## 1
Amino acid sequence: MSVLSNLEPESVFGFFEEITKIPHGSGNVGQISDYLAEFAEKRGIRCIQDSLKNIIMIKEAAPGYEKEPAVILQGHMDMVAVKKPDCDIDMKTEGLKIGVSGDLIYAEGTSLGGDDGIAVAYILALFDSDTIRHPRLEAVITVDEEVGMDGARGIDLSVLTGSRMINLDSEEEGIFLTSCAGGARVHCSLAVTGSQREGMAVEVTLGGLQGGHSGGEIHKERGNSNMLFGRLLGRLTEKLPVCLVEAEGGLADNAIPRQTRGVLLVREADTAQFNEILKAVETELQGELASRDPGFFLETGGFMPGTYTCVMEEDTKRLAAFLTALPNGVQAMSADMPGLVETSLNLGILRYEGGKLLAEFAVRSSVESAKYALIDRVAAVTRLAGGLSSSTGDYPGWKYRKNSPLRDKMVSVYEEMYGTSPRVEAIHAGLECGILGSKIPDLDCVSLGPDMSGIHTTEETLSIASVRRVWEYLVRLLERKDD
């Protein structure tokens, strides 16, 4: 049974609901890509599906619009697939359970994928319509944007004729984005020595944090559960002989982690002091996070005696020192644009497996040299701790264009429709515009989208009214001929 069938615009919400029924987390895009290719084939639309599963669709201009500049519509088909610990949905094989609450669409127990499923829905609705007047439309729908922009990096755009691109990967209505930071993923690995030890094992969980997108919400200085776990481990190893048995936190490098779980081994004689330290750290952190993360908690399970494979005490201290020394969060604010984050990083994934502690960061900066300096800093800390690091998914920033006929036209249409001016801004989060701009000569690009909140989290929502308004704006913009 359809959940969104009574919403307008019917075509946009209809396609969005179909998308939510198809598993399409990053790295698992085969089904959604084939669905898009089949959509085009059924309608006789020219479509290119490359070896990476990227999709390009082309729809010729409507009568009377043949001389208008072609417009590229761009979004990505993958989503950050995260779920609550008690959710039984297998996001690799099952669709989402969506619902409506007032003006908001949400998914039960999982992320919604409005980022960037709504962009794909807009594109499909435009290509499906026989009544909307428009210039030549060239859709570029990429894969794996959320894990390094691999689709944008590998796609061949030589078939395109347009030099004006509307990116549909933004989350605030009324804001036109015209530049963004560049970034990269940094992978750190520290080998440790394991041994069999007798003692009291206890599970420790730091959670209840809000998390969020590491580009759009890093400036809010919310708690990072992986960093907080490192702080706790440091306090414990200062006072007690503690061994790490297990550690896992975070789901994606570009999502601020909300929960980190660890299992630690202590001597039976130290259990009382262990609990005292945990209580003290919990009180400290709850005080520090009272305004930003009021739901923070630090929970422990019961002590379980036994023999466990664990990290030796000295190596556990080394891991604690490594996590304590690492930079995280906002590193610099822009000197040119007040309020804009220039450089940041997010320890999004922490794992202990196979005799190694693995840590993954999303590094961002609108200044290329600052980005590489921060990558070097993480590498230096890792090296001093006896580990190795590497970086992948390096993508350039998107530079502001002073002369932009597309931006001027978009502002004019917005003012005509709403009687007020949109905000024209830069963002710290990464978009594919910089990579695609390196493949399209003289690309003129603006990014927009409807209101969303909590993207990359299980609290993600999409505004119904905003989706409708942005759709009406897109249609008016495409129908407006150049002066």
## 2
Amino acid sequence: MKVEKFVEILNSDFYVGVPDSQLKSLCGYLMNTYGIDPKHYIIAANEGNCVGIAAGYHLATGKIPVVFMQNSGEGNIINPLASLMNEKVYGIPCVFVVGWRGEPGVHDEPQHIYQGEITLRLLDVMGVDYFVVDKDTTEMELEDVMKRFNDKLSEGHDVAFVIKKDALDYDNKAVYRNSYAMKREEVIKHIVNVAGQDLIVSTTGKASRELFEIREENGQGHDRDFLTVGSMGHSSSIALGVALQEPNKKVWCIDGDGAMLMHMGAMAVIGAAAPANMVHIVINNEAHESVGGMPTVAGKMNIVDAARACGYINVISVDNEEDLDKILWKVKTRNELSMIEIKCSIGARDDLGRPTISPIDNKLMFMRNNI
């Protein structure tokens, strides 16, 4: 189905969400139609944040908002769905558009498998009526479903469209760029070189895939790295947990701007704990690159000042390769909590692979190296 028709049938002028590769057509259409216009289209920090914004939109306008997300974000919406939106509380109506990663019977990455299995069950438990959209869904079918959904929405209920792979089609592309020169994979190579035998916790998405391939290219093992293939936004918390229990080992967290924003409160906890052996690196390309390159708000905030306000002791930003190694070596030898914001371009190799070891094996390797 053409995404333009899908949007027409939903008949909303306000979309807020977290980008998803299954919803690339929708995100591209919204970007080309609205740009980043907060009155119509917002890319939020996390899915719970989306629900709050959507609720505010409804309270101010009386109209129906649309929240879009990957199914991995269902967990982030459970609290506001149950304690804010539900008809037994405020009865705030909303249309959810959920990309179905890990759909049973469709090959996907390990972090999506269980989430895919429980996607519809979670909606059932939360009392959200849903309709699954696939590439054979007709416009007439969708219009009929929307008529039924409108009755529910008018009564303060929430509804959802669960989008299968290739269900939505868009002929154009939305292109987002920044002005930075450094490439993320090259940045990670520099980090690996300086880290040496130190421990590394890497974030969800292409950063972990690149770290894995760098180790393979170097003929190194993977027992020093924990690849956070799922649970976006939590790698810095994982690194904190490791650093506090391994005070004699340097722990590097390779984070992304989108992941950092998703659960930014972790920075305050890290700053308060202040492990002297932890280096928190935020590779900032101002985009959710792994799911299509839609922009984050990291280009409009001062990450360095935010980290300092959270209690990070040594904080610096770098946007060129000439200074990168100097800064990396400097924080390696300093015995204090550090953050480095590294500004880089958007983009990855077309032939970038995925880890060839399972998450369980990665965990066991990492633990055997540290226990």
